[in-house]
Amino acid sequence: MAATKVPEVRDITRIERIGAHSHIRGLGLDDALEPRQVSQGMVGQLASRRAAGVILEMIKDGHIAGRAVLIAGQPGTGKTAIAMGIAQSLGPDTPFTALAGSEIFSLEMSKTEALSQAFRKAIGVTIKEETEIIEGEVVEIQIDRPATGTGAKVGKLTLKTTEMETIYDLGNKMIDSLSKEKVQAGDVITIDKATGKITKLGRSFTRARDYDAMGAQTKFVQCPEGELQKRKEVVHTVSLHEIDVINSRTQGFLALFSGDTGEIKSEVREQINAKVCEWREEGKAEIIPGVLFIDEVHMLDMECFSFLNRALESDLSPVLIMATNRGITRIRGTNYQSPHGIPIDLLDRLLIIATSPYTEKETRQILKIRCEEEDVELSEEAHTVLTRIGMETSLRYAIQLISTAGLVCRKRKGTEVQVEDIKRVYSLFLDEARSSQYMKEYQDSFLFNETQTASMDTS
Amino acid sequence: MDAGSQHVLQYLTEVEEAAEDVLTTKQQIVDLDMKRNRNREALSALKHEMSDSEKVKVCFGNMFIKFPTSKTREMIQKDLEQLDKEISDLRRGLKAKVNRLNEMQGKPELTGYNLSPLSADEIRAINSLLTR
Q1: The CATH number of A360-443 is which of 3.40.50.1820, 3.40.50.300, 1.10.8.60, 1.20.1000.10?
Q2: How close A231 comes to chain B (CA, Å)?
Q3: Which of A9, A296, A401, B34 is most buried, by CB atoms within 10 Å?
Q4: What was the ipTM of the complex prediction?
Q5: Does B13 touch chain A (CB under 8 A)?
Q6: Chain B, 15-74: which have a CB under 8 Å from a chain A CB?
Q7: What percent of chain A has pLDDT over 70?
Q8: Entry's PANTHER family (chain B) (predicted)?
Q9: How many domains are contained in chain B?
Q10: Is B105 on the interface with A (CB under 8 A)?
Q11: Which of A128, A167, A242 is opposite residue B115, by nearest beta carbon?
């Protein structure tokens, strides 16, 4: 054997999985809110993106809390993509909760409870914590133990920052907690002034050479700057739902970690609302109305819709964004027909953004972006063929073919996906139209064939 | 120099001045804290190493004056209170200055920066959320 096998070097950083909308990084708008043709993973849909951009700005300014937006359009026209784009451009500070319409149907929780939990998850409360701390590098600890072994210990602790150095007298308690934390010269520590709690931040860089062998957990930090006695302010953002859960008596705060929160009493919610409003008036808290996104909203039934009507009027309400791909259809739980399967009175409160089917050029562009996202190289002809498939069947089917064709291509040790690879996967996997065609042709050989019995009944 | 560059220069000067202002305030806090720590050391030294009847030598400018211990302790205590007040005033002022600098540089205002803190009781109540 002349050729020796070279062990394949695998890149272990790329273990992140690729979702259907992982290429979306924002709405792709410029500073004047004008949509760019291709930007941040978004392609086309200029009118709807512009509309979404206007809404986004209003959300950021906190103007439209308690309003609702409906994104309507045919399947595969980028409804979820626009919602993702809004989520991405809102940034990490604004709470964004996404849920699918069918998620609220559960045996453990009533529908309205699930909805109100989702509503409250989408409202953030910013609060501030302030503590006086002493932060410095330990220069020396000196502890005098009484010769008898019993009695009060006394000691001295010398702390320094880059600017100053000072000596603290230590009492019995401080000595105990210092020895419990195993603080020694060279450690950088903070002492909470109010509680006397000692926290070790790490060892000072200047003492890095004190020992030859050191545990992996040893962390090196810079000697603190500035004054020794600092004021530390920490800003936290928590959601209303999290505060609810802690205060829900029967569960206790552990419920947050087990995931099963059960139902929360409405009295608890009212108490929390009152407390939060009180904090806001005292300037202790800021309320951030976030975004609640309900996908496939036509899956909700009549009760949920009337609940939504009511919930949107509460003064602690997030911005509600819904998406649906239905036309005029039956409202779930009733026999009434309505546009988008949503009752007229709720529709009346909505701002509706419509998405339109992609053109051929846009489809081509999207497929290109997806190829980059999935790390598949596509030849020019294959790209054209795939665009053709995308136009004739559906965009989703064409996107599915990218990764499968990529696999076929790798199997034959090619570097670039050719037309043959596309042809092969096209013959391997049926699209929706061909699959139904096949069903129609061979329906006799399938079990429980309904079309046949129906025809027999009529005959 | 034409009007454009004049404008830029003026803007940059303003930003620099604001930044300098922030830095001086910070340095002032450091200096005051240093003084505060020295006073604290002096107090504990008086408590542990001196008897009340003794007189201590206190340094005023470039002169040492013998002073009764209790009087000295009172004096330092008063000084400490004054220092505490001054430092917290400076800190309050520092916030406005940092905000002004951020605004000048076109940076977004920090969220929650101007909130007043929750009380210790309230913090304890929702502590399990905060320590995550």
Answers
A1: 1.10.8.60
A2: 9
A3: A401
A4: 0.80
A5: no
A6: 26, 29-30, 32-34, 36-38, 40-41, 44, 48
A7: 90
A8: P53 AND DNA DAMAGE-REGULATED PROTEIN, P53 AND DNA DAMAGE-REGULATED PROTEIN 1
A9: 1
A10: no
A11: A128
Low-confidence ranges of chain A (pLDDT < 70): 1-18, 62-65, 249-262, 449-459
Q: Is B106 among the domain residues?
A: yes
pTM of the model as a whole: 0.71
Residue A134, C-beta contacts closer than 8 angstroms, at least 6 positions apart:
A159, A168, A190, A191, A193, A228, A229, A230
Q: How many residues does chain B have?
A: 132
Chain A nearest CA to B130, separation (Å) = 7
The pLDDT value recorded for residue B118 is 77
The CATH class, in words, for A128-234 is mainly beta
The domains of chain A are located at 41-125+239-354, 128-234, 360-443
Host domain of residue B119: 3-50+82-130
At B19 the pLDDT is 92
Q: Which fold has domain A41-125+239-354?
A: Rossmann fold (3.40.50)
**Which of A60, A125, A130 to substitute to test the interface with B, most B CBs within 10 Å?**
A130
**Nearest by CB to B33, which of A93, A228, A238?**
A228
Any domain includes B61: no
Q: Has residue B69 been placed in a domain?
A: no
Is the residue at B64 inside a domain?
no
Q: Please list every residue in chain B whose beta carbon sits closer than 8 Å to the beta carbon of residue A272.
A: none
